Amino acid sequence: MSTTDQVKNILMVGVGGQGVLLASEILSEVMMRAGHDVKKSEVHGMAQRGGSVSSHVRFGPKVYSPLIKKGDADILFSFELLEAVRYLDYLRKDARIIVNSQKILPPSVTLGADTYPDDIPEILRKKYPSCEVVDALEIARRAGNAKALNIAFLGVLSKYFDVDERVWNEAISAMLPAKLLILGRL
Amino acid sequence: MKVILSGNEAIARGAYEAGVSVATAYPGTPSTEILETIARYEGVYAEWSPNEKVALEVATGAAIGGGRALAAMKHVGVNVAADPLFTASYTGIRGGLVVVTADDPEMHSSQNEQDNRNYAKFAKVPMLEPADSQEAKEFTRLAFDLSERFDTPVFIRTTTRISHSKSVVELSEPQKGPIQPGITKQPEKFVMLPANARRRHPVVENRLQELEAFAEEFPGNRIELDDTSVGIIASGTCYQYAKEAFPRYSFLKLGMVYPLPRKKIKEFAGQVKKLYVFEELDPFFEEQIKALGIDVIGKDVFPVCGEFDPGSARQGICGVSEAPQKDATLPYLPPRPPTMCPGCPHRSLFYALNRMKVFVAGDIGCYTLAFLPPLSAIDTCICMGASIGHAMGLDKALGKEALGKVVAVIGDSTFLHSGITGLLDVAYNRGACTIIILDNWTTAMTGRQDHPGTGMTLKGTPTSKVDYAKLAKALGIKHVKKVNPFDLKTLNRVLRREVNRPEPSVVISDAPCVLYRRVEKSGSRPAFYVESSACIGCRACLRLGCPAIEWIPDSRQQGATAGKKKGEASINPVLCAGCEVCVQLCKSGAIRKKDVNN
């Protein structure tokens, strides 16, 4: 097994403004603290204004490319239903999908020109039976802060990695302003 | 100590560790975070310059004074800074001068995907290209040393996937540059009159030969021999993609992309059976390698356009695409392009221009998004500041035909970057143009940076603030009018009057970016809602293209009003910023303010 085979590929997607980039930032920090080589890549600027956002996170003994090759993602972590479908061609056949049940309507839908596909969880489950649909907003509310949706959702992802909870907490503490941490002890 | 840094943060760190004293830039994706990061280091003077030409001139001045200096810009910014660059190559420097060019293959946030490696060859300036954040830091430190050792500006070239990718970096302690800043007069070196410039040109040519000798020894240009059936020459992020795709093949990894180590390339070519050059955009290496008489495969199998990924390397070398086929059973996915924010002050202005059916010469900024339907009110976008010249040219070519039909729109930061000279031309040569300055008090597109019109510096110090009305008048524009773009009635009246005026005029649309940090958010604006019983389903509000306004077709309504209308509008209270523009468009009075007490 070459070192590249041991690299884990996590594709995080959503809509500009949902906190996708901060979540991928935290995941990268956690994996570095857990002793991995880490790379992550995303785009800023015009691409972010309410548009479709993706962040590639890769970690393992040695990581070369900052981008995940199509067909190689181990986990698709989507902050929005429709965006999960948009990036399916990045997934391995045995990939896992974790998707937030939130719907954010694209402009052509709000204008009444297109419709938002209404059976996305079924479509995802049919192709990827282990697909997990999560109401991250509800988890964040239960934890006491609806605004910390991205952190709450990250909590769902954390159970798939063999990393001590302490490392997660330390990374989050190091990366979030103290004010936010007091608001939402998660 | 190990940290995770983006390529941009690593360049900033490298400059800090190298003892940089002056750093300059105009914001531009994907380069912006370099200066935002440098500004946070103590003891470094960092500024947002009005444009890249000024940025490079300030950095050059600092280097002439013996300070280590860095100017950062996006690829097209180098076009603006090209004038000082080409001659700074002749004069050389005293303190180290590093110019960062951040290229944008795939045009994630740019108007073209020019390959700025060509600038290195064109300006005869050496160029280093890091392949991850650790190298971005190390190469930036090295660039200052090379600059002083070879008496030349030095380029650091990144691409979006280096600038905006994060990877692990080992930090070092900052050091001071070896040169003590001070005034040293060397007119024969720094005054490029023809007689002096003629003496400097051979110095530049000799320098290139010395730099090539350095490139041969430079450990950043390294041969990695493994399976010699295939050899791949690559630099930057392309090296990572190819290495990912073919970890067993042999590589010549180039850290210095100009001048090239020709002997090392020949040596590598002699060690492998089949040789590929894997480079994004132009065949920059390929042409130079072929000129050495070496048989190499490049653009015959790899594309010229767009960015690469590991799949591009496999497809080019294996000859077939390994990417999964699109699943035809999946439903149609509505696209999700970037849009103007709810409450954006640009929306009502472009709505008004759309209704006036004028030709809108556009510029670079968030407002370029008004190109998209339903606003559909941007007709040109070529480069920073160009809108004003375009309107002037249309006016001169069409004569009276153009009156009332052409306007230019330009953001505040873009206007200060390179619109002032265009406006001077309109005043001086009497264009019957209307120039609309979209003053949203910030450089919004790149993430709300300060500029000479905001009254604040990059370091957060209060400073002078441009008065656009006074500036326009000083340039010779007699008719200058400031409007609140959220007041549609006044906006329409002012625009119609100025556009039909057979003289130069300026309209300043004055309202802060909805994300602007210094506007008081006291009690935040109330959200609005659509009173279902009053909505007649006319869709007038939908023409704004506001993300907060949603069309609900009859089929989705509960307790249907089917037969009467096809659907109705609805306002998403989470997204509504309370700008009240839709309220002014609603003929039936259905859009109402939420009772805050309820």
Structure explained in plain terms:
The complex is a heterodimer of chains A (about 190) and B (about 600). With about 190 residues, chain A is of the alpha/beta class. Chain A has one domain (about 5-185): Pyruvate-ferredoxin oxidoreductase, PFOR, domain III (Pyruvate-ferredoxin Oxidoreductase, domain 3, 3-Layer(aba) Sandwich), CATH 3.40.920. Chain A has 8 helices and 6 strands; from the N terminus they run βαβββαβααβαααα. Chain A has helices at about 20-35, 80-85, 105-110, 120-125, 135-140, 150-160, 165-175, 180-185; strands at about 10-15, 35-40, 50-60, 75-80, 90-100, 130-135. The longest helix of chain A is centred in the first third of the chain and has 14 residues, at about 20-35. Chain A is globular and about 50 Å long. Helices cover about 35% and strands about 20% of the residues of chain B. Chain B has 4 domains: about 1-215, Rossmann fold (3-Layer(aba) Sandwich); about 220-320, Rossmann fold (3-Layer(aba) Sandwich); about 345-510, 3-Layer(aba) Sandwich (Rossmann fold); about 530-595, Alpha-Beta Plaits (2-Layer Sandwich), CATH 3.30.70.20. Chains A and B meet through helix 1, strand 2, helix 2 and helix 3 of A and strand 8, helix 10, helix 13 and strand 20 of B. Strand 2 of chain A pairs antiparallel with strand 8 of chain B.
Features:
heterodimer, A: 186 residues, alpha/beta, Pyruvate-ferredoxin Oxidoreductase, domain 3, six-stranded mixed β-sheet, 6 strands, 35% helix, disordered C terminus, B: 598 residues, Rossmann fold, seven-stranded mixed β-sheet, five-stranded parallel β-sheet, 34% helix, globular
